[in-house]
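Work Package 3 (structural annotation) set out to generate three-dimensional models for the target panel prioritized at the project kickoff. During this period the team completed the workflow that converts sequence records into discrete structure tokens, so that structures can be stored uniformly alongside our sequence database. As a representative example, we reproduce one entry of 89 residues exactly as it appears in the project archive.
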Amino acid sequence: MAPENHITDVSGAGFPIPGDDIDTDQILPAKFMKEVTFDNMADYLFYDARRDDDGEFNNHPLNRFGGAQSPWSTPTSAVAPRESTLHRR
């Protein structure tokens, strides 16, 4: 990355994700990679980790932040903070 175009500041709400060395298939399971747009991708974030064996939402950190909304999804999404900024210099 060129020195004049590097990230200098990232801000927004954060939350802990348990575990070490989180696999990318945990973040966005491959079964959802068939999507041709990013419209619903936020709904699939940590999809399997956020659900019990019966498909119900569990106590995953992403499920505990009610009312949060992804900037990439509909207002009903409950997976990411609404206000995030990324500053480049």
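The chain is about 5% helix and 10% strand.
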